[in-house]
């Protein structure tokens, strides 16, 4: 990227945020802080009113705004591809808003670029795994975002797979996280008087109340995630998959705590950070002799116990 393009991009970045740190600009464009300072000075010399807060960052002063921004073809294509993931990973409340945004983006493109997006639309697809091809659930994503921004208490019925029952909860949301093929909301649960991780697809009868809560009394999402990483009881496991089954685990392994892999003459050795060993062992059993547990011994023992239970179960059935 040449300097003229970078200066324009920095100006857009400043307009998109209330405060922008010099380090954030440096990281985005892979430049030094000294270069950032020179670029800011160049924008100021060109008449752009840039203010600064010592030790905080830069901002555009006096309500200064650029005229409507035009998207490059590359930027428009990236948004179209992102939209494919929006269709698969969100619900109707977000999909509708994203569709409206794409229409506005296409409206300011040149005609040849509009035709390019129309052509690309039918050539890009994001498919769910076969087990997830059912109708998408109502995830209340728009309501959750409203609650997060307004700091409002959310009331909902939450389904617990353990008890098989719904309980009415009042929660104070601190953030949304997507992992394990599902959206989760991290919140302070008024019923349990502690922080909890709730799956959005297990919520029903959700309402954003008028009751407010104070952020100073709650952890931030970053603080919660950091605390969880330090207090987890997860166990490090190492297993070897034969080459014949590796293709089947490539996507699935991430939901079981996959960390890294190493190819050997005997197959692919994978390291997992396992929070629930029995759950992990049952998954490994689906690959039969295609997987070998290297460590820890507890995982080997648990797998042998599960195999013994299977043998006993089917042995008894055969005797009947």
What would your notes on this structure say?
The protein has helices spanning 3-16, 22-29, 33-45, 73-89, 92-107, 111-121, 141-150, 221-231, 243-249, 277-285, 297-319; strands at residues 50-53, 57-60, 152-160, 165-179, 182-189, 194-199, 203-212, 235-241, 258-264, 267-274, 291-295. It folds into four domains: 3-60, Winged helix-like DNA-binding domain superfamily/Winged helix DNA-binding domain (Arc Repressor Mutant, subunit A, Orthogonal Bundle), CATH 1.10.10.10; 73-129; 141-230, SH3 type barrels; 235-318, Alpha-Beta Plaits (2-Layer Sandwich). The model has no long low-confidence stretch (mean pLDDT 86). It has eleven helices and eleven strands. Helix 4 (73-89) packs parallel to helix 6. The protein is an alpha+beta fold and 320 residues long.
Strand segment tally: 11
N-to-C SSE series?
HHHEEHHHHEEEEEHEHEEHEH
Strand content: 25-35%
Integer-rounded radius of gyration: 26 Å
- How many structural domains are formed by the residues? 4
Largest sheet: 5 strands, antiparallel
Contiguous uncertain segments of 5+ residues: none
CATH topology of the largest domain: SH3 type barrels
* Amino- and carboxy-terminal Cα gap: 75 Å
What's the total helix number?
11
CATH architecture of the largest domain: Roll
> What percent of residues adopt helix (DSSP H or I)?
40-55%
Mean pLDDT score = 86
The secondary structure category is: alpha+beta
